[in-house]
């Protein structure tokens, strides 16, 4: 099975892993060239950023604690506080 994994890795990762950055670069370059107004684009990007951040905050601070409380029947604050060191380590080491 190890040889199969290696073969799939070579067939998939090598060509696509080397070509993808160039393809993404040219897709972004095309959009930059077609840009009509930098201020409009930055404004739209800012709204998108705020929307994503708001969604993550709602999910992390409202929905997940509510689900934890509903299913476990305990307050989620002690559980969350105990995860603090693990979360800090994960962010600090760029762990995936």
From TrEMBL:
Which is one Gene Ontology cellular component term of this protein?
plasma membrane
Keyword Transport present in the record's keywords: the answer is: yes
Protein's UniProt name:
Amino acid transporter
| Protein family according to the UniProt entry | Belongs to the dicarboxylate/amino acid:cation symporter (DAACS) (TC 2.A.23) family.
InterPro entries for the chain: DAACS (IPR050746), Na-dicarboxylate_symporter (IPR001991), Na:dicarbo_symporter_sf (IPR036458)
Q: Which SUPFAM superfamilies match?
A: Proton glutamate symport protein
Question: What are the record keywords, sorted?
Answer: Membrane, Symport, Transmembrane, Transmembrane helix, Transport
Pfam families given in the database record? SDF (PF00375)
Compartment(s) where it occurs, according to its Swiss-Prot or TrEMBL record = Membrane
- According to the UniProt entry, the coiled-coil residues are none
Q: Which GO terms describe its molecular function?
A: glutamate:sodium symporter activity; L-glutamate transmembrane transporter activity; neutral L-amino acid transmembrane transporter activity
What is the membrane topology here?
Answer: Multi-pass membrane protein
> Which ranges does the record mark as transmembrane?
7-28, 48-71
Print the organism lineage.
Eukaryota, Metazoa, Ecdysozoa, Arthropoda, Hexapoda
């Amino acid at each position: 099975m190890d040889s199969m994994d290696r073969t799939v890795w070579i067939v998939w990762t090598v060509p696509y892993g080397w070509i993808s950055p160039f393809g993404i670069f040219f897709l972004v370059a095309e959009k930059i060239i077609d840009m009509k107004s930098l201020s409009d684009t930055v404004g739209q990007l800012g709204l998108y950023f705020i929307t994503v951040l708001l969604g993550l905050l709602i999910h992390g601070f409202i929905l997940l604690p509510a689900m934890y409380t509903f299913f476990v029947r305990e307050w989620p604050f002690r559980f969350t506080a105990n995860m603090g060191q693990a979360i800090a380590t994960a962010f600090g080491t760029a762990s995936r």
